[in-house]
Design goal:
Blueprint: E1 12-18, E2 28-29, E3 35-36, E4 44-45, E5 65-69, H1 80-86, E6 92-95, E7 104-111, E8 116-120, H2 123-126, E9 135-139, E10 153-154, H3 159-164, E11 168-169, E12 175-179, E13 181-183, E14 202-203, H4 209-215, E15 225-232, E16 238-251, E17 262-269, E18 274-278, H5 284-288, E19 291-292, E20 298-299
Parallel strand pairs: 12-18, 13-15
Antiparallel strand pairs: 1-5, 1-9, 2-3, 4-5, 5-8, 6-7, 6-9, 7-8, 10-17, 11-12, 14-17, 15-16, 16-17, 19-20
């Protein structure tokens, strides 16, 4: 068991609402120069959830579950910035109003650009939601530290989820972290160079079919824990040989150049202090028991009890 400072973390109640699906209202162009009009970011997405494939959808940057915002009109201002930074993967989310009142879900992570927090709820809960409903997230995780591994930085990670990730300390002191996929550094695109990783994500580029096939990128599922090789996320997103970052996949594959499945950072080290271990069940749905799981089918958190 890893020692942490979880008992010293600050826990906020964060209030948000489902955000309407967004569109630019015009043609977009993929990396082959082909125009398209398809579903994209935002919305209460009924038929996509954690554990589903990140590939094959007729969409671009599709966000599973419920895309949440504190202020859709001011995504880069207070209070939405606080919602983005203080919401962490694995946080409990509860519907506070409407027909789905009392239903529980889990935060997957946050998507930069759209400035949405992605929350997974079962389909029957999503069908009861309105865009005017209020969702309360128990924001806890920023500031989490591994007290025995000070050179491994944590971001955006609920300590309860950390405890479910099946991380082990090897005899050489390196942390062995189960992941589904090892992503080569050349594939990291949109979002690289950001000043910090406490909100937003960055994308695994999937425009080269041979690289996608070589590394099995097309097998990535929404909610997967993945290893970003030679990427240091301590003070932004940067290439550094020997560094390893662990993230969670929060949105689907994309058609635009420089984009692909989006990853919210959870762990990072500037040197090889993290050793990824491939495990097909290294997914938040499998670890916490909701969404589409490799074993045991599909299951969701507690349903609402009505008004």
């Amino acid at each position: 068991m890893l020692n942490t400072n979880a008992d010293r973390l600050v826990e906020f109640l964060l209030q948000c609402h489902p955000g309407q699906p967004r569109t630019r209202g015009s043609w977009e162009v993929d990396h082959q120069g082909v125009p398209f009009i398809l579903p994209s970011i935002g919305g209460i997405t009924l038929n996509v959830q954690a554990g589903d494939s990140a590939f094959g959808w007729q969409g671009d940057h599709v966000e599973p579950g419920v895309s949440c915002t504190a202020d859709t009109q001011k995504p880069f201002e207070h209070p939405n910035v606080g919602l983005q930074i203080y919401s962490c993967a694995g946080n409990l989310a509860t519907v506070a109003t409407g027909e789905a009142k009392g239903a529980e879900g889990r935060v997957l992570g946050h998507h930069g650009g759209s400035e949405h927090v992605i929350v997974d709820f079962p389909r029957e809960v999503k069908e009861q939601l309105l865009y005017s409903d209020t969702i309360i997230i128990r924001g806890r995780g920023q500031g989490l530290q591994l007290t025995g591994h000070p050179q491994v930085a944590l971001f955006n990670l609920d300590p309860d989820l950390l405890g479910k990730m099946k991380i082990k300390e090897a005899p050489d002191g390196v942390l062995e972290v189960p992941v589904t996929t090892l992503v080569p550094p050349v594939c990291m695109g949109s979002g690289i160079g950001s000043a910090h990783v406490a909100k937003g994500d960055y994308d695994i580029m999937t425009s080269d079919p041979e690289t996608v096939a070589e590394y099995g990128l097309d097998r990535i599922r929404l909610g997967d824990f993945v290893a970003l090789m030679d990427h240091d996320n301590r003070y932004g997103r940067a290439y550094r040989r020997g560094a390893v970052s662990i993230g969670i996949v929060v949105h689907s594959d994309c058609r635009e150049a420089g984009h692909g499945p989006g990853v919210t950072t959870l762990m990072t080290a500037a040197s090889p202090l993290i050793r990824p271990v491939v495990d097909p069940e290294a997914n938040i749905a499998d670890r916490l028991g909701f969404g589409t799981r490799l074993k045991g089918g599909s299951k969701g958190p507690k349903r609402g009890k009505g008004k």
